[in-house]
Design goal:
mainly alpha
């Protein structure tokens, strides 16, 4: 086999390896893109549409339909408050008064002695 054929085979093997790794990494790269860039890429490169479809979640077109007893009665909605019959509540308790600090003896004019010097270490 000639040198030219060997180089072509090596280049094809390297290109296939790079392409394979790129295809494995592409979905993670697409997920990391910000939304505006994703929209622009979908518009400019329609060939990437299958990759975007794999990694993005479509928004629902409508909310799910309720099921069970509420759906049969047609009572789907937010509950309302009954202002005509208020419920009894206990009045809030006032906060406890703050505890005054204990009085201390005045220290003005008094000298506190300095601590004694530490003795040198014995070896």
């Amino acid at each position: 086999m000639s040198q030219k054929t060997k180089r072509i085979i090596i280049l094809l093997a390297l290109a296939q390896a790079v392409l394979g790794l790129g295809l494995l990494a592409l979905p993670r790269v697409v997920q990391a893109l910000p939304g505006s860039l994703t929209v622009r890429l979908q518009a400019r490169a329609p060939i990437l549409r299958p990759v975007f479809d794999l990694v993005t979640t479509p928004l629902p077109a409508s909310l799910p339909v309720p099921s069970g007893a509420l759906a049969q009665k047609g009572q789907v909605g937010l509950p309302t408050l009954d202002f005509a019959n208020p419920t009894a509540t206990t009045p809030p308790t006032p906060p406890a008064p703050p505890v005054p600090p204990e009085p201390t003896a005045p220290t003005a004019g008094r000298h506190t002695p300095a601590p004694p010097p530490t003795p040198p270490p014995h070896h």
